[in-house]
Amino acid sequence: xxxxxxxxxxxxxxxxxxxxxxxxxxxxxxxxxxxxxxxxxxxxxxxxxxxxxxxxxxxxxxxxxxxxxxxxxxxxxxxxxxxxxxxxxxxxxxxxxxxxxxxxxxxxxxxxxxxxxxxxxxxxxxxxxxxxxxxxxxxxxxxxxxxxxxxxxxxxxxxxxxxxxxxxxxxxxxxxxxxxxxxxxxxxxxxxxxxxxxxxxxxxxxxxxxxxxxxxxxxxxxxxxxxxxxxxxxxxxxxxxxxxxxxxxxxxxxxxxxxxxxxxxxxxxxxxxxxxxxxxxxxxxxxxxxxxxxxxxxxxxxxxxxxxxxxxxxxxxxxxxxxxxxxxxxxxxxxxxxxxxxxxxxxxxxxxxxxxxxxxxxxxxxxxxxxxxxxxxxxxxxxxxxxxxxxxxxxxxxxxxxxxxxxxxxxxxxxxxxxxxxxxxxxxxxxxxxxxxxxxx
Length: 441
Ligand SMILES: Nc1nc2c(ncn2[C@@H]2O[C@H](COP(=O)(O)OP(=O)(O)O)[C@@H](O)[C@H]2O)c(=O)[nH]1
Ligand SMILES: [Mg+2]
Fold this sequence. Notes:
single chain, about 450 residues, alpha/beta, Four Helix Bundle (Hemerythrin (Met), subunit A), Rossmann fold, 434 Repressor (Amino-terminal Domain), 3 domains, 7-stranded mixed beta sheet, flat, binds guanosine-5'-diphosphate, binds magnesium ion
């Protein structure tokens, strides 16, 4: 996500930082470039105009021009303004109060409502709340089934509908949840390809009947310029408290996020970063700004890491590295853990500077190849790579669908990495040793 804008802004700041001192003209040119980058990222032109106005006020003043590092200072100003622009005043959370609490998801068909419903239930479960998933869709039996299958896969409570109207589904689901002690009730409403009156009426009725404390507009972040109109239309007719931006893992240009939040003055609460129940994050403006500006997002990465990386295992690995007992078997475990963090490209985007290095040669394909190579080793080879001679290398290469060169390189890198990690890891539990050369194929 935000690939283009991040690259563009990165280039702009790189050239600004090269200059020792910035003239007013330099800054103006910089702002013009930023304006273009935002427009290219599909940010609504009115929003861009307003944002640049705000920037101008702060960026052409003494603070930037008299700074010893004007490029850096300008970046800081942009960071602050962008954060303010994306940030609502209130604390970001999913409102679940009520007995039961009610969360209603609205949005066009395909925006990601059903997936998000499951993700929210999954997310809340980690916080100790057991939700009830309710399919409020009578038109498409497939839609009901989709929610049921996803709920069952994740063992999340699901309301089996027998009712003939949405209103009855809503009422019965709420009393069922109350009886079973489930909260919140998550209403997955039916979308349409376009906003039409029947859908809106259905939503308004359900809202009146159940008075949900949390109504979230789910929006596909690839929507582009349409996002603003869709958002405003839903706001005018139904209204909502917050926005969920889905498919942020794709190559969305990001402009929708920026514009929609601004024109509706509703906070972006959640972002979807994949198809799996775990691929949901609470929105943090500063973190998002860091990502957009290519400054990385280590806080989110650290949180995710803490969730999936078992402390004892990490400590054990560090100990083995120190004592020179770290094997391919251990390495395999670590790769597995890291993969749980999401796609490597996502991870790379969160590491400061990774994006601006240019070609990232860490990708999911390369780590899959490394995994394949390790999988093709026998346990004794993994534990004692020294025994891997020429004929074993050939066997491993053909078994893993790679080449002997790749196997050679992995073996060499692994030794190098172990040496380096041994020096580095004095006491610190690390996870993926970072010195492996990843093939670009
Ligand atoms: N990559 C990606 N795909 C998503 C995300 N959220 C939803 N999807 C996919 O988008 C498609 C439509 O989602 P769905 O939840 O059925 O949308 P609905 O019609 O609004 O209920 C499905 O194929 C989902 O797997 C996301 O955050 N990332
Ligand atoms: Mg759906």
